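Before a colleague's protein record goes any further, I have to sign it off. What it holds is a sequence and that sequence's fold in token form. Would you go through it and say whether the fold makes sense for this chain? The record follows directly below this note.
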Amino acid sequence: MASITDVARLAGVSITTASRVLNPVAGYPIAAPTRQRVLAAAEAVQYSPSAIARALVTRRSRIVGAIVGDIVDPYFAEIVRGVEDVARRAGYMVVVCNTDRDPATERRYVATLRDYRADAILFLGGDFHDEEGRRQLEQEIALARRNGTVAMALAGERGDLPTVDVDHRAGAREMAEYLIELGHRRIGFIAGPGVVQTAQLRLSGFRDAAAAAGVESSLVAEGGFTYAGGQAAAARLLACRPTALFAANDEMGIGALAAVREARLRVPDDVTVVGFGDTARARQSVPALTSVSMPRQEMGAVAMEAVLAALGPAKGSVESRIVAHHLVVRGSAGPPARHGELNGRARIATAS
């Protein structure tokens, strides 16, 4: 394999000059004819710079770690897509780390990314640690940041890290208010894991709306943020005869649709089902799932752009940002059978 020494010899320049031409981060002025000779020599010998050697020179690995709770959940996949779109154009590689929402696994990934001198670590999804686990993770993050790694949280908070997020509590409250405006008074809530911060916020939003309207809020079953968990939780709640099921994420909402079908009930004629996230699966389900929409791909892109700004020459600071959410009404939502159409639906745009 050709080395930079071979390039320098063929171009008739020093190794230092060849390195400065082939390393655009260095930023040293090189005469145009010299630059062309070095580039032509590199092409002639089929020189491919070592990523490790380049990292040693530039102190940049061009690696971004994206730590996700569940890699098969399209909720996370769409955020990663936004990160990757921006990272690829800037010459960065995104490494996706699946934790299965296990705090110890997450900490090991942070330590590994620190060992590889990752330029950035992005945490996707809410915090799911107890106090001791949170303290240990914060120590790992502090060590990484000391090495120059940029750390951010997306779609959920992580200690004092800057975030790109929506208001999960407000989104859940607005969805619950929409169901109440439709006439629903017995709403079953399918919650995410109690240790996950975003799950707690969405449950709180549901209870905020229920309390304000004097509606029962005790019909709650945990579904673990998974399809199977949502299906099982919905089956339990259906025994209490709710007129609507509100799932704290779309995967559980789609599982709830299956549970309603198994109970030989119709959506939305017998039971309304809504979710949170507005993933591609929600749009493709039958009937299509009404959901709280959050621009996940945009969130990923915004976060990666902030990372690039922080790593650039200006060393910009990373600021937290809240992006807008909205309700998308589809075929899975309707008034209870005993009620007619209510005017409250008119204020929310309906997706085709």
The first strand starts at residue 63 and ends at 68.
